[in-house]
Write a structure and sequence with these properties.
Elements (H helix, E strand, L loop, with lengths): L18 H13 L5 H11 L6 H15 L19 E12 L4 E10 L5 E7 L4 H15 L5 E4 L8 H6 L1
Parallel strand pairs: 1-4
Antiparallel strand pairs: 1-2, 2-3
Helix pairs in contact: 2-3
Length: 168
């Protein structure tokens, strides 16, 4: 099947500025750089009888400014990640699942390894508390045969309390 264009081709060609008009606009931009694009276009229309839009003037001002300024350096992104597997685990509860047969919300607990970004544990719980968090940590440690050096949780109630602090 042939591909059809979404709109008809333009009847007339795109109007471009002549070199004389460009030079006159550049002269006004250099003489009066404090004027905005609307006022500069108004001056060119009324004083010099040149039909030019404010967006064209704005584009010319931006090109002029970019030519004067040195190029910006590339940002130096510093990504935080641990350098060894199982050195840091992130934990969080998400309430995304509604069980229609029980008419309850199930909470998804995920534990993620910071080095590999892999899930070391993921399960659904109906009643999240500190005990379910501890059971999940023990299950993940047994499965992966590793004890993380650090754990990071948000400040939710399943991650607070003396029981969890004593376990960690």
């Amino acid at each position: 099947m042939a591909r059809l264009s979404k709109r008809e081709a333009p009847v007339r060609l795109r109007r471009q500025l002549t070199p004389e008009i460009r030079e006159r606009a550049a002269a006004i931009l250099s003489d009066k750089p404090y004027l905005g694009p609307e006022r500069t276009a108004w001056d060119l229309r009324n004083c010099d009888h040149i039909s030019i839009s404010a967006s064209t003037i704005k584009r010319m001002k931006r090109k002029r400014r970019d030519a004067l300024l040195p190029p910006r350096p590339q940002p130096n992104w510093r990504f935080y990640e641990r350098h060894h597997p199982h050195s840091l685990w992130h934990g969080d509860f998400l309430e995304k699942v509604t069980l229609t047969d029980l008419d309850q919300t199930a909470y998804q607990l995920t534990l993620q390894d910071d080095y590999s970004r892999a899930y070391v544990f993921c399960d659904l719980f109906l009643y999240p508390d500190a005990r379910t968090t501890i059971r999940s940590l023990i299950a993940a440690m047994r499965t992966w045969r590793a004890i993380p050096k650090a754990l990071v949780f948000d400040n939710g109630p399943p991650f607070k309390g003396r029981l969890l602090s004593a376990f960690l």
